[in-house]
């Protein structure tokens, strides 16, 4: 079988150029002797997959995609449009959905990840797809109704009924609106849960993926990270036990220290920081993560890992499809690209 070729997003204003965000990967690929072709992300999102792939030569592949997140149904249309041209993606549409959306991977990672419940919402899409991966909100055009009080109460009961929690959809949170639309200090306060969930649904708007997820909040090691993306206040490591509000009162933000591990065929091929904290070192213990990654059975995935604040072990914060996971600045992805070219 020939080496896989890569499909990268084109520039939003010029279909012959590469999206600036992926220029570095394209250069590295070229240096490694890899082949890439451009696809039109906006056309994929708009539902015009045939037009999106019309610059991809027929009869080529297999392909890895490296690009912006796509809703799962759009990924499936992308795969179908390539198949019409005799090409195929190495990650199947069901494989993409199971790594990309929490309900797809949760069962396999249960016990290794914070306890979670989810409520599908009528009218929600099948995964974030804007170029920022989360967006400034889908606006008010979507009109998706948040879950009613009975459904929320049942979900809260499913999480044990009390304690702190976080809210997200099947793919993304609104972590930058932490107090307003992400963090729930106490599940037993049902009106407060309803408020945070309603605000989350409103802000996600048309970008809401699948439904609402509630996860038990766990205390992870956090670091003060300032706007210049550098640790402030000395070493910055912080193992205190407050309830997660990220403001440190000095203009810095307290963020979970997460490692992003890139897995290919069940092996970790690249370990680095989460893109939110480029340059922040961490050395995760992968022993508990390898078995579920293998069970999930997707060839190319990422896991974001955080250490419990009491030092008692590493937890999976989330799983992602490796094709649409963001690479942090400052990390050399050559090892990963070499492995993908040899897959
Ligand atoms: N159960 C949890 N307990 C404590 N903190 C959590 C929990 N789940 C998520 N977090 C933290 O909340 C923030 C958002 O979480 P998450 O990674 O799930 O959202 P996201 O929007 O998908 O982020 P990204 O795609 O940028 O990684 C992160 O800082 C994460 O460390
Ligand atoms: Mg995350």
Automatic annotation (TrEMBL):
Residues 123-147, 228-253 are annotated as: Disordered. Residues 124-142 have a biased composition (Gly residues). Residues 236-253 have a biased composition (Basic and acidic residues). It comes from the Bacteria. Pfam families: R2K_3 (PF14243). InterPro entries: R2K_3. Residues 159-337 form the ATP-grasp domain. This is ATP-grasp domain-containing protein. It comes from Kitasatospora purpeofusca. The lineage of its organism: Bacteria, Bacillati, Actinomycetota, Actinomycetes, Kitasatosporales.
């Amino acid at each position: 079988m020939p080496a896989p070729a890569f499909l990268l997003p084109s520039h939003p204003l010029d279909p012959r150029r590469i999206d600036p965000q992926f220029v570095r990967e394209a250069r590295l690929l070229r240096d490694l002797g890899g082949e890439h072709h451009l696809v039109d992300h906006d056309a994929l999102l708009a539902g015009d997959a045939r037009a999106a792939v019309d610059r991809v030569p027929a009869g080529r592949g297999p392909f890895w995609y490296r690009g912006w997140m796509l809703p799962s149904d759009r990924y499936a249309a992308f795969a179908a449009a390539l198949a019409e041209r005799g090409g195929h993606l190495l990650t199947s549409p069901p494989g993409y959905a199971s790594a990309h959306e929490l309900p797809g991977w949760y069962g396999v990672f249960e016990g290794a990840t914070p306890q979670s419940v989810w409520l599908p919402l009528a009218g929600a899409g099948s995964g974030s797809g804007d170029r920022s991966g989360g967006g400034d909100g889908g606006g008010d055009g979507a009109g998706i109704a948040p879950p009613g009080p009975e459904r929320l109460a049942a979900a809260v009961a499913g999480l044990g009924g009390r304690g702190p929690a976080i809210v997200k959809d099947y793919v993304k949170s609104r972590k930058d609106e932490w107090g307003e639309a992400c963090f729930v200090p106490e599940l037993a306060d049902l009106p407060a849960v309803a408020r945070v969930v309603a605000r989350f649904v409103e802000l996600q708007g048309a970008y809401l993926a699948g439904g609402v997820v509630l996860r038990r909040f766990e205390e992870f090691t956090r670091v003060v990270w300032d706007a210049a993306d550098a640790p402030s206040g000395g070493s910055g490591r912080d193992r205190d036990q407050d309830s997660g509000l990220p403001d440190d009162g000095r203009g810095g933000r307290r963020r979970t220290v997460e490692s992003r591990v890139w897995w290919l065929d069940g092996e970790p091929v690249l370990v680095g920081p989460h893109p939110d904290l480029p340059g922040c070192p961490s050395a995760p213990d992968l022993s508990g993560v390898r078995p579920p990654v293998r069970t999930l059975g997707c060839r190319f995935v990422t896991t974001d890992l955080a250490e419990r604040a009491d030092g008692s072990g590493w937890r999976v914060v989330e799983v992602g499809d490796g094709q649409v996971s963001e690479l942090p600045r400052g990390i050399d992805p050559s090892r990963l690209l070499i492995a993908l070219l040899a897959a």
